[in-house]
Amino acid sequence: MMTTELRVLDTDTLSLLKRGHKQVIERLDAVPLVLRTTTVVTAEEHLRGRMAQISRAKNMKQLISAYWQFQDTLLDLTKIHILSFDEHAAIFFQNLQHLKTRVGTSDLRIAAITLANNGILITANQRHFRQIPGLPTEDWTLRLSEE
């Protein structure tokens, strides 16, 4: 049976996808293109990581490589729908902040965006995200029989 919920790729899952994680690729291939998403927060985290690489470059070879990776990340992000942190997500975020969970601000924003869009968060970071009531998650690094 085909499901219609958005699959919201968390930062870790997007990284695994980029590195060619077989199970993540197989699971994503089974999801219709229109349901594959990520959040603007995940995009920010990926770009910050690439910008940090640029800043740390100690020679021209590292700098060239860092800029290639930055550009590659930009291109990857154009291939997936990016969900916004809008007014609706902000309300979810404020409500989640009041729960006093041990979940970082960026992860709370990702959760809020996912909830605001009735999505399923695809993450291997189950320990944090399972603290958030009502947030559906899946870990695509596990076999279907392990979930």
The structural class is alpha/beta
Straight-line N-to-C gap: 18 Å
Supply the CATH architecture of one domain.
Answer: 3-Layer(aba) Sandwich
Supply the CATH class of one domain. Alpha Beta
Q: If you consult CATH, what is the topology of one domain?
A: Rossmann fold
Major sheet attributes: 5 strands, parallel
Give the secondary structure arrangement, pairings included.
Elements: E1 7-9, H1 11-18, H2 22-29, E2 36-39, H3 40-56, H4 60-78, E3 81-83, H5 87-97, H6 105-116, E4 120-122, H7 126-129, E5 137-138
Parallel strand pairs: 1-2, 1-4, 2-3, 4-5
Characterize this entry briefly.
This protein is an alpha/beta fold. 54% of the residues lie in helices and 10% in strands. It has a domain at 7-41 and 81-142: 5'-nuclease (Rossmann fold).
